[in-house]
Write a structure and sequence with these properties.
The chain is mainly alpha-helical. The chain has a single domain (about 1-235), classed as Up-down Bundle (Rhopdopsin 7-helix transmembrane proteins), CATH 1.20.1070. The protein has helices spanning about 1-30, 30-50, 55-60, 60-80, 85, 100-140, 150-170, 175-205, 215-235, 240-245, 245-270, and strands at about 85-90, 95. Strands 1-2 form a two-stranded antiparallel ribbon. A hairpin with a 2-residue loop joins β1 (about 85-90) and β2. The protein is globular, with a radius of gyration of 26 Å. Keywords: G-protein coupled receptor, Membrane, Receptor, Transducer, Transmembrane, Transmembrane helix. Its main location: membrane. It is a multi-pass membrane protein. This is G-protein coupled receptors family 1 profile domain-containing protein.
């Protein structure tokens, strides 16, 4: 019996370890969770660079962003180590355990990680667009029609508006505007490709205790497969979105390719 128990424990360790590789690497490192989190950071950064407050704008710098990405990535990776314990192998692949506690924990965290990024992304994208629209409105008020008695007030108002516009123009450079446009395009694709998975996650949480027929289970599994495929598709299309939508990104990418080519040629010339 002791030998059988030890073999069973070894088998469980193997099973959990096997599930840890595809679920952890593909689901976390490959981008399902991290891509959502990074997109949230991008939206917040776009909002920061359009702020009227100089102190707020200074928060958007390379040093701070690198620290946030490094620390938060480590935290996310450590948090999702639970998949090595809570997932098991079935015919359909690695799935969360049906154990009451872990199943509830997984559904709640999955639901939170699906809904909270939606709220953050939509909120900060809306705030960024509002500031851009405000800039255009200030531009349209450069030459308002006024009566002579209002000339002094008009000059003071124009002076303040001009200073504000110059400040906005300095921050909203062409490069930043391109990044904001790319961010908006990426947000649109994020909503379209992640919404089915969010709906399915919410549906699974609501119908968790319902008794389902085999046909219902089959339909649920099919919808889950489609939603998961769209979810992974979003993780892979950022490069194509940036390449197709941004001239600057294409130029930078082409320059990088040429630089890599030159380094490879130089390397082989030295050692061959």
């Amino acid at each position: 019996m002791s030998t059988l128990a030890s073999q069973l424990r070894a088998s469980l360790v193997y099973v959990n370890g096997y599930c840890l590789i595809p679920v952890f690497i593909l689901g976390i490192i490959a981008g399902v969770v991290l891509s959502r989190f990074y997109l949230c950071l991008i939206c917040i950064d776009r909002w920061l660079i359009t702020s009227l407050n100089a102190r707020t704008r200074r928060l958007s710098n390379v040093k701070t962003i690198r620290r946030i990405i490094l620390v938060s990535t480590i935290i996310w990776l450590l948090f999702h180590l639970h998949v090595g314990i809570g997932f098991r192998i079935e015919i359909s692949g690695c799935v969360p355990s049906s154990d009451g506690f872990y199943s509830t924990f997984y559904l709640i965290t999955n639901l939170a990680f699906s809904i909270i990024p939606f709220i953050i992304i939509i909120l900060f994208t809306t705030l960024t667009l509002h500031r851009i629209i405000m800039k255009k409105r200030l531009g349209n008020r450069r030459n308002p029609v006024v009566h002579p008695v209002e000339l002094v007030e008009r000059n003071n108002h124009q002076s303040n508006s001009q200073n504000t516009m110059n400040d906005l123009d300095e921050r909203l450079s062409n490069k930043n505007l391109q990044l904001i446009k790319l961010n908006i395009i990426q947000v649109i694709f994020f909503i379209l490709l992640n919404l089915p998975n969010t709906i399915y996650t919410l549906y699974s949480f609501i119908t968790k205790t319902n008794q389902k027929t085999n046909d219902q289970i089959t339909i649920d599994n099919f919808f889950n497969y489609v939603a998961s495929s769209l979810l992974y598709t979003h993780c892979a299309i950022s490069f194509y979105i940036y390449t197709l939508a941004s001239v600057t990104f294409r130029k930078e990418f082409w320059t990088l390719c040429l630089r890599i080519q030159q380094n490879i040629v130089t390397f082989f010339r030295r050692f061959l």
